[in-house]
Write a structure and sequence with these properties.
Oligomer: single chain
Helix content: 25-40%
Distance between the termini: 29 Å
Structural class: alpha+beta
Strand content: 15-25%
Number of strands: 21
Largest sheet: 7 strands, antiparallel
Radius of gyration: 22 Å
Strand order of the largest sheet: 1-20-19-15-14-9-8
Length: 535
Amino acid sequence: MKVNPHSHRYPSIRNLVYGQRGMSASSNPLAAQAGLEILKKGGNAIDAAITTAAALTVVEPTGNGIGGDAFVLVWAGGKLHGLNSSGFAPETMTLQYYLDKGLKSIPTYGFDAVTVPGIPAAWAELSEKFGRLSLLECLAPAIEYARNGCVIVPNVGRGWKRAYNLYKKELKEDMYQHWFNHFCPNDRCPEVGDVWKSEYTAQTLEEIGKTQAESFYRGALAQKISAFSEKHGGHLRASDLAKFKPEWVTPISTNYKGYDVYEIPPNGHGITALMALNIFKGFDIKEKESVDTYHKMIESMKLAFVDTQNYVAEPSAMKVTSEELLSQKYADKRRSLINETALTPEIGDPTSSGTVYLATADNEGNMVSYIQSNYMGFGSGLVVPETGIALHNRGNNFSVDPNLANVVGPGKRPYHTIIPGFLCKDGDAVGSFGIMGGFMQPQAHVQVLVNTIDFALNPQEALDAPRWQWTGGKTVEVEAHFPPTLAQALADRGHDIKMNYSSLLMGRGQIIWKTEQGTLVAGTESRCDGHIAAW
């Protein structure tokens, strides 16, 4: 069976978008258009991905920023390349530090959650290895948006307002005032339709572009970040920034019904999607809108997730290998636990057997699956003065349990939720896909792939189909337009079904597939302000 990108079996809100010479798909129209602009100027898909990503830090700061992390899958030269640009814990971010403070978990906000940011380094590394244009040329649209203004779209405006109301209530210390000064000047939260601009952000992006991101890690910007951290008792120092380099990694994969599904290896949790697919593919699935299909998919996801939440960490600290977690023998063992009623998943033993996503493509065959994030919206609530750099809070995903592989420690990268995906068949690229949304991401990957491969839905249909999300134990949240008869049937099987009325919490993503004719076809979420710019 082949992916049929042209099918129309499921009602979708948006129409499919086709292109021939290139595409840029993202959660914001201005960012997607910026990527297409670079393609038309002679850039390739990698240049377009950098441009779109940089633009997103300006036009959608509610989901990402210059001070976040990134993961990338790049199809170039007939091969898939993986880039892990997630930062590590600073030298003084020790377990003892948190234990001495009596903390049971890593704080959500403030410097205790800030690890080294990886996004600027990702842009520079991609540009140097695969780009055709200079990094400064690729950042030019983002600089223009920051300097001259961009219009705030609905979902961004709503996220901005939520953050403002929360931060106004919770973040009282002086170090957080810079966030308000930068994002809500004069104590006013920007509204949907307002024009947002930041000269500081424009200047920072220019400096990153002119120095190939060296200033951010070993120059003037690094000194500003370090000084701000030191002033407020933070861990991050110029010496930590200077040590950072992104890591080129070999993507991990599994074969699902003739298609090779690729993810970035740990410390990201893309392996969760692969493990769930390994379990699920052992079932004989015949019908999409069937309680049996949904039940077995949910159970497969639960068993995979409970394992990765226990085992995934900085690779050198993991107690099991990716190969062990992805072995078919282990998947068979986990599948045997699934029966006709909902289970409370327990950890197995394989040894015995705030985010934005974008996709780009060009007419040379290059394709990029790219995701970056500050986490939980704006991240740590910290903005480095006079830079526009909002620092992420990825350290929040560390544990303070010394028995876990993901325990906090200097030089370690935390368990990461952002995951780009890529699909191949018979050694050739089918295309890039990704869905942002914290711990929803691997669950959405599985649902979109099953929709695509098992039920031949086109990219837009695969994204628009109603989603579910396992949140722990036997609890499963479903979207408001999830079929009520199926929700009841799942409840009858022991699932604790909850209605989720916030579509943003069910993931927001994009897909670009290559067609058999050599053209491109794409879909983007109806759950966000997504846009596909095609040429």
